[in-house]
Amino acid sequence: MDSPASHNPITFDSKPRRWKDSWQVPLFILGFFLLALSAGYRIALKYSPAKKIEQSQDKALALVATGDFDAAISLARTLANQPGNSTEQANKAKLFLAQILIKQTEEKSQKSPGDYQEAESLIQSLSKEPLERGDLEKKEFLHAKIQIQSGKGLPQGLETLEKLPPDAIEPGEILPLIVQACLHLPKPNYSRALAANEEYRNIPRLSEEKRIPAQLLAGEILMQLQRTEEARKILEKIPETSPTRLVVKAKSLLAQTFMEDSLWQEAAGLWKKLLEFPGNSSESPGRILYQLGICMNNLESHSQAEKYWRSCEEKGDQPERVAASLRLARLYLEMKSRQQAAASLAQAVRGSKGLEDWKNPYFPLAETQKLFNEVFQSTKESHEYETALRLNDSMQKIIEPSRGLELRGDILADWGETKLEAAAALPEGAQAREQTSSALGLFREAANFNTQAASLANTPEESSKQSWIAASRYRKAKEPAKAQEALTGFLSKTPQDPKSSQAWYYLGEVQKELGNPDAKNSFQQAIKYRGPFAYRARYQLALIFMERNELDQAADALEQNLQLLRFDPDAEAQEKSLFALGSLSFLRKNYRMVARRYEEALERFPRNSQTVRARLQLAESYRQLANQEQQNIILSEKTTPETRSHYQKEHQKWLEKAAENYQDLELVSATPLGISQLTPEERALIPLLSAECQFNLGKYEEALGTYARQAARLKGKQEGLHALGGLIRCHSALGQADLVQQRLADLKELLASMDDSVRKDWEPWIAIAGKPLAKP
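Given the sequence above, the corresponding structure tokens read:
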């Protein structure tokens, strides 16, 4: 049992008790020391350089959040250049500065590759620095981001992102960049972009603010992949409660999917809803009206399409206004309303400053030029030349200047051809001459435009082409001096052009027309080339020789032509050479060659413009050949009977040919063709020569009839003397003595009215004819 004293602390001996509890003192002191040390460390940590950097970065990020990038960049740049920074701190600060610089560029409405220059320099400066894994991955990410967003290294940037470890960067940051890179590659990778987009949309707890734009982008990518049905399913899931601009964009994309599938009615319904959608400020009315016009046009409601496109011209922005005008032009062209089409095209290019200025997302330049050309050709073919000229004024803004001038020349030349055709259909007179004169003026003006086009052409080949066309049109305009200038220019630009022979030939023709002696040299240049124009040039050389009475050289040239043409036929050159050689042989009195060449020429080319004269010379050649055989008969008394018989047969043959041709000529001599090719004297002589051949063939009755008709027609005229003389010969051959005397009396009566020289020529003949006929 304890004693009472044991419960009384005051009476207990205190000294032993004090030493027993003394261990608490050092423990208390140690605790106090640790507490003081901890407080000191926290105070030291608060004011350490690392903490200061962290605080400054937080402040910079806060400034970025408020949009004050200048202050944020200034603060970050101070941190990067802070004296006393360790290498690690300096590298982290540079990465932070680069990050803010990139963020600033991302916030700009209009970016340029140069905006990333400082950030890129900072990142490149870290390439040789030892970095922690996290900083290294961050550096690679930022560098890839610059490459992708600047467009200067899309493939490399995408490759870098694909190689980063999955946990290196937050998926919410890296996946949108991958999508962006895939969509902007030279050849977009839509499948990879769609996969990255889907992965992004499946990120847990991704905000609707980010998910819905990604959903819209998925719809666009699926449209690019032509998976329109899938695109519609995604777009239809966008809630109506989403921000208006996103809902409007979703409906716009949805309408486009219907248009892609030619579901025009469904698309039109959506566009009409968008036109009246409350609060719509993102989709322009012009674009909606433009798309509505396309839908209505495809639904064959052309009046509605016209209405919407007209409204778009008034309310749309510049791209849609222009596209609507072009759509209207095509609509009017299909309706054959070419003037309205031309007016719409003029409206489309009204604000354009020139070819380089054309940038329309709906109508690329090539498609626009094609439409202009279709309307242009249609107006030209329908002979609406004034409309075509107005259209050409508009075309000047979307084509090369030289091309515009060339097309203007085409209009005028075509107009000239139309006027020439109209003149040819008119009777000769003032109106026909006026039309022809107007046509020549149009050809001249057209050639002038081609000459201007030649001076503005971008290449020597194009310049030569325009000079060539100009020369052709100057020739049509009957402007040989201008044609000579254009042809000389053409030959100087492209001396080895395939058309050189033709050019030299045409040059020779115009020089010959101008009386320029250089024509001979031009024709000689033309024959250095193979082809039809070499043969035609040789023919022209033969004509020059004939004009100079150098008949042997002319004959040689024509004979050479015909020999060469056997191996390389050219109908025009053969035709001209045959007729020319026939004419030349007639001049040289080589009647057998005349017969040979003209027979071939008239058989092969019966429509030649000189057929009447050729047949006259052929008939006369036959007659002369018959006379030669008659002389052979007279001189053949000492020859064998066989030879004499041969001469008689040849005489008969040539005489029959002559008679046949003169009879044909008698029929054609009174026609416009005969009148144009034969002189009045030749036309009067043909029946008499025909009758003479009949007489010499012993066909006295036929000859008598021909002479009688001519005597009646030429009564009282000097030519009638030959007809009366022929009658006398026929009556004499038929033994009609009384009629011989009657016709002699008529002949003497007519001679009495003639000059003495005429009478003296006939007196010996009358004396012989007046002798009594021998009794049978």
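Residues 347 and 433 are 40 Å apart (CA to CA). Try to locate this feature in the token string yourself.
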